[in-house]
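Attaching the record inline, Q. Sequence:
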Amino acid sequence: MEYDTRHGGPYDRGGADSYYRRGFKPHYYSGGTMQSDEIPEALMTPDEIKAYTKGFDDNEDLGDFKDWG
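Structure, as predicted:
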């Protein structure tokens, strides 16, 4: 399945939450990250939650995490 990987979208936010070790909390932005409305899990469709989860899991599998040095 192809996922929309736009900045701020569900797949992107899942990957970012994993990268920054923020934990699993499905959400996305209606436009750009931090520059538009945040859509919480309660308002997400099953496909959007699936995309967030895939982004999170893909980054977990890669092991690509922020080095806080």
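The mean pLDDT is 96. DSSP finds two helices and two strands in the chain.

More tomorrow.
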